[in-house]
Amino acid sequence: MDKEYHGVFATRSPARPNPVGISTMRLKMIEEGVLYLEDVGGLDGTPVLDVKPHVVEFDQPDDTSIGWLEENVHKIEESRDDGRFAR
Questions:
Q1: Residues whose CB falls within 8 Å of the CB of residue 4, separated by 6 or more in sequence, listed in order
Q2: Is residue 2 over pLDDT 70?
Q3: Which of 14, 24, 55, 58 lies at a C-alpha separation of 20 to 30 Å from 84?
Q4: Per-residue pLDDT for 85 more than 90?
Q5: Is the pTM of this model over 0.70?
Q6: Residues pairing with 36 in the sheet
Q7: Own/partner pairs for 79-86, CB < 8 Å, 24+ apart?
């Protein structure tokens, strides 16, 4: 969504140095030791390695920004996956 080059950690590129990502999600329920999650920022079948509670006091600092994406976030609705994320 931008004409400038950005490092792999500044993007949601599928070409990452490892397949581990970080995502905020909702815990819908726990049933017989199985976690049921919603709003996961990954593909179906992606393993979840760890789950931690969201604590507003330190998970959302007041000085957060989205960097270079700030000027391009309006393009999200018109931008689509080019096929590298799912086969």
A1: 68
A2: no
A3: 24
A4: no
A5: no
A6: 29
A7: 79/1, 84/14, 84/15, 85/14, 85/43, 86/43
